[in-house]
Amino acid sequence: MTPSPPDPRIRRGCPGADRTPLAGPESIRPALFLDRDGVINLDRHYVHRVEDFEWVPGVHRAVEMAKAAGMWVVVVTNQSGIERGFYTEPEYLALTRWLVARLPVDLVVHCPHLTGCPARKPGVGMLEAAAEILPIRREGSLLIGDKATDLQAAAAFGIPGHLFGPDSGPLDDFLQGLIPQP
Ligand SMILES: [Mg+2]
Ligand SMILES: [Zn+2]
Q: Best exposed site among 47, 120, 129, 136 by fewest CB in 10 Å?
C-alpha cells in the first residue's frame, strides 16, 4: 500500500518535530483544546482502529460552536500506545486522517512517548507546539480533558481546564457557557 502524503494538520508535538505554521500572525485567535480519548471518542483504552472509535455525543456540534465563536480547535493527545508497542505510528496516523476527514479540527498534536518527553501531558509541550503552528491567543482559550493530567497541561499553559466525563452529558451542552455564543 502506498503511504498517504502527510497531512499538515497532523503533527507530533515532541521536541524537534515540524513546526511549520499553518496560519500567519494576523489570524491570531483563542483555541479550544480537546483531549481525544474520553472527549472526542469514548475511551476504550488505546483506541487505534476505526471499528473501536465511537464518537462522544455532541462532539461535532461542539466543534462547530467553537468555530462559530472564532476559535481554533486543536486536539492534543498522548499516544504512548505507540511506544508501548500496542500499535504503530502509521496506524495512529491512518486513524487520525480518518478522524480529520470527519471532524473539522484545525490541528491534531500527538506524543508517541511513554516517558521522558516534555510533550506528554501533564507536560505542556503539545500545547506549546500548537501555539507555534497556529497563532493562538491564550486569553479566551480553554482545554477540555478527562484526566487530571490534561488539566495540569492546561494550567501550565496558562489557560482554564475543564474536566469532562461520562456523566457530563453531551459535549456540546458541556461547552455551552464555556465559550462566547455567537
Ligand atoms: Mg483522555
Ligand atoms: Zn513525545
A: 47
Contact between residue 159 and residue 137 where contact means Cβ atoms under 8 Å apart: no
4 belongs to a structural domain: no
The total number of structural domains in the chain stands at 1
Find the CATH number of the domain harbouring 135.
3.40.50.1000
**Whether this model's pTM surpasses 0.85:** yes
Active-site annotation, residues: 35, 37
User: CB within 5 A of ion ligand 1: which residues?
Assistant: 35, 37-38, 146
Q: What is the pLDDT of residues 4-48, one digit of tens each?
A: 668 999 999 999 999 999 999 999 999 999 999 999 999 999 999
In a domain, 3, yes or no: no
Residue type, 96: T
| Grid cell locating 156 | 501550565
Q: How far is the CA of 45 from the centre of ligand 2 (A)?
A: 19
